């Protein structure tokens, strides 16, 4: 009987759904992601599939540490812990991510952060703490805005879809511009995106980390952005040089910024962005899997069930990364 290790915080109804998806020929073992390394090591000795994120160092030397392991189905969309690790991902093990489960809520988060900056909500919240009743002056609007979205996958596409309600013009940044991508008015590559920076009202960053994207929004490119523009990042913290962003905000060149991810993460206590009145910061909260939004948990469970059925039937799985 093959074993499937659930290494994340699925609720009982989701475990039951996973059990129904794999059938009686497979044993479901549920462990907390906070389980000790020794407990996880023991489970890895016999499991064929892991749903979750086992530590990279525990799956090294698979012939010894996880001899039966064939598939890791992540519950995260980002794969940095495996694909950008100093250790090599073991050959013979398939890796799939959870892309598609987070676009619904993260796109709402992006729009919410953007509107909060445009409409001075941060300033009004700060005023409330001081019991001050005072208008904060000029605001901005997404209506008819030109928006450059770094990342045209699930999160970027869902964001572009929601921006249609504002009649915004959306430009998606992706590797393959020949592939049709719904909800975007235009597509460009990372290299081509620079020419749009002086034109757009908002830059939204939903892009995965890579050698090409690390530090991409540096001082020079931030300076190329249109005066009074806004930048929002929910992708990877290292996409934006945070010190350069602080300088750019202080100069008054940009209207404001909203960051759900930073570099480093979290920022050090003395980092100037904490106190920058033009910057809104949230603690990597836009795409949390569990104990935040039931609909996200349901989407994630559905994806896991589908991929387990595909794997056990010998059909190509979705979201294969390696």
Account of the protein in words:
The protein is an alpha/beta fold and 322 residues long. The protein is 30% helix and 16% strand. The chain has helices spanning 12-22, 37-44, 62-65, 80-83, 103-118, 121-129, 154-163, 219-224, 242-250, 294-313, and strands at residues 2-7, 26-30, 47-52, 71-73, 94-96, 146-150, 169-173, 186-188, 202-205, 230-233, 256-259, 279-281. The strands form 2 sheets. The chain has a 7-stranded parallel sheet, sandwiched between helices. Strands 2-1-3-4-5 form a 5-stranded parallel sheet, with helices on one face. Helix 3 links the parallel strand 3 (47-52) and strand 4 (71-73). The relative contact order is 0.14.
Question: What's the short story on this structure?
Answer:
This protein is α/β, with parallel strands linked by helices and 322 residues long.
Oligomer: single chain
Radius of gyration over C-alpha positions, nearest whole angstrom: 22 Å
Instruction: Tell me the structural class.
Output: alpha/beta
Estimated helix fraction: 25-40%
Contiguous low-pLDDT stretches (5 residues minimum) are: none
Q: Which overall shape is indicated by the principal axes computed on the Cα atoms?
A: elongated
Number of helices: 10
Topology order in helix (H) and strand (E) letters: EHEHEHEHEHHEHEEEHEHEEH
Biggest beta sheet summary: 7 strands, parallel
Percent strand equals 15-25%
Q: How many β-strand runs?
A: 12
* Spatial order of strands in the largest sheet: 8-7-6-9-10-11-12
What's the N-to-C terminus distance? 26 Å
Give the mean pLDDT: 94
